[in-house]
Amino acid sequence: MTTYRTVSIDGLDIFYREAGSRDRSTILLLYGFPTSFHMFRNLIPALADQFHLIA
Question: For residue 9, what are the domain limits?
Answer without folding.
Answer: 2-54
